[in-house]
Amino acid sequence: MPYSKPQLRLLLVLAALFLAGLGVKQWQAGFPETAQWLERFEREDSSAAPGDASRDVPPPATRQTASTDDGSPRRDARPEPARPVDADPRPLDINHATVAELARLPGVGPGLAQRILDERERRGRFDSPEALRRVVGIGPKKLAALRDLVTAGE
Known about the structure:
Layout (H helix, E strand, L loop, with lengths): L4 H26 L1 H16 L15 E5 L5 E4 L15 E2 L5 H5 L6 H14 L16 H7 L3 E2 L3
Parallel strand pairs: 3-4
Antiparallel strand pairs: 1-2
Helix pairs in contact: 1-2
């Protein structure tokens, strides 16, 4: 037998760690927005000093309303409704759109908008809205939601 039992165990552990690393990398490629969110969360968590109470404090209420009996402002837990964005009835041309324009599409944040722009620069113009499927982070459901909102013009 070329390897002893402890050596075989070590090789098995190393192979398992390698496969776990590949699995994490594939997960990050499949869910880039969630992976970025988790990494940002981890950075924020590690930047706070141990025992720092400031990270345990909930964010302030979002809106002030009428005052209480003692004259201090009362905070309302309901967030203010989002202001409606001026919606353009025409589909957005993905071959000429900026990151800000792409980020206004439903389900597309700034990170995904930048990946769409990077893919357009790397491969050239999109032939059709279905070509967005090549962008990491756009799956069949998101593409179905975007299909009527975008066009691939010249």
